[in-house]
Amino acid sequence: MVRVIALHSVIPLRAEAAETAEMVTQMLFAETADVLEDARRWTRIRLHQDGQEGWADTKMLTPMSDNEWGEHQRIEQLSMSINRGFVPRVALPMTYAVSENNGQTLPLTAGTRLLTYKNGKFTLLGVRFRVDPQAVITVPIGISLDSLMQTTRFFLNIPYLWGGKNALGMDCSGFTQTVFSMFGVALPRNASEQYGLSQMVMKRNPLFSVSNPVYSLEHSMPGDLLFFDHPAKLDDDTPQSSTEIERVPLPATTIEQPHITHVGILLDKKNVLHCSGRVKVERIDNHGILSMESADADHPNGRYTHHLVHISRPE
Question: Could you tell me the fold of the domain covering 82-137?
Answer without folding.
Answer: SH3 type barrels. (2.30.30)
